[in-house]
Design goal:
Its EC number is 1.5.1.7. This protein is α/β, with parallel strands linked by helices and about 375 residues long. Helices cover about 35% and strands about 10% of the residues. Helix 3 (about 105-115) packs across helix 11 (about 350-370) and helix 4 (about 135-155) packs parallel to helix 5.
Amino acid sequence: MSTQRLWLRCEKKEFERRSALTPTTAKTLIDAGFQISVERDEQRIFDDAEFEAVGCTLVDNNSWPTALTDVPIIGLKELPVSEEPLPHTHIQFAHCYKRQAGWSSVLARFYKGGGTLYDLEFLTDATGRRVAAFGYHAGFAGAAAGALALASQRSGEKLGRLEPYENEIAMIEGVKKTLATVGSNAKGVKALVIGALGRCGRGAVDLFRKVGLAEDDILKWDMAETAKGGPFQEILDVDIFVNCIYLSSSIPPFLDHDQIIAAGQDRRLSVVVDVSCDTTNPFNPIPIYSINTTFSEPTVPVALRRDLPSLSVISIDHLPTLLPREASEQFSHDLLPSLLELPRRKTAKVWTDAEKLFHEKQKEAVDAEGLR
C-alpha cells in the first residue's frame, strides 16, 4: 500500500488559533505510516517546532495550492472567498450544506476543479452521530463571553476585544474576576440554555456552574421544553440566553422583535449568545440580528427604541478558539480514528457517506449556479 499523505493548511480566518491536527495526533498518524506536511503558521496555537519534532515536514504558509492534487488538504474553517477551482480533496468545515450565504458558489469551486469536500460537520459514525465536534468548548466559551458581556453592560460599557485564554482555569478565573469588578458576582445572575442536553449545551451549563451561578438559576431546556413552539416568555426573564441547538429544519422563533418590544421596561434579558450562529440560515430561530460578530467586536446591539433596555447579541462562529489548545486536542483526538481510515476512504463508511452527501449537495449547487 502506498504511503498516505496529508497536508495541514494554515487558517486564514482572523483570530483562528485552533488546528485540525495537533502534534499528538500527527505523531499517531505518522506512526501509522502517514506522511504529513504542515504549513508554517504563526497564528496557530501549536508552534511549528512542535510538529517538526514529531516528524512532520514543514512547508510554506498557505502553499497548499501547489500540493499534488492527490494529497488531501485538512483544515478547520472555510477557505477565503474566491472563484478559483478546487482540484484537491478538502477536509474542513465549509458551512455550505444548509444553504448558508454563498453556499452554491463554494460548492461550484469543487465542481469546476474536480475536487472533493469532506465536510467535518457531516462526518458521522454508524449510529449517525458526528465523529468529532467542537460543541462542548463552543458552549463553554459562549457562556463565558455572555457573562463578560453582561458585566460590561452593567458597568455601562460595550464588551471589548476578546483574547484566547491559556486554559479553562484561566477562563473561569477571568470571568469571575470581571463579574466581581462590577460588583456583580455570579450569584443572582440567571441564564437559560436551549439545547442543554447536547455537547454545546453541556459546555454552557458547565461554565455557568464553574463561575458560580446557582443551580436553580441555570435553566436547562431541550426538545421537551421547546416542543410547544416559541416565542418563549421565559427567555425574557433571564439575564443571559444561550442558544445551542443544531438547526436542520424550520421551527417557530425562540425570540423575536415584537416580543421584545411588547415586554417594554419589564424585560430582564440583556445578552443573547447564539452559539449556533445560523445568521444566514433561512430557518434562524433568533431573527433579531443579521450579522456575525467577531473577537474584536464581540457584540452587536439589537435595534430597539431608545427608551427600552439595551440588548446585545454575541454571534461569533468560532468561539472554541477562546480555548484553542484544549479545543484542538479534544477535537483532533475524536477525529483521529476516522483519519486513520483515510487510506481506505473509498470503502470506509465514515468517508463514503460523507462523499455521497457531498455529491448530493454539489448537484444542488450546480443547478443553482446554472452550470449544466
